[in-house]
Amino acid sequence: MQGKAQEKSLKKRASLVQEYKTVFSTYAGRRVLYDLMNKHHMLTPSIYEPNMNITFVHEGERNVVLGILKIINENPQKLAKRIEEANQGEYDYV
Question: Quick one: pLDDT at residue 6?
Answer without folding.
Answer: 81
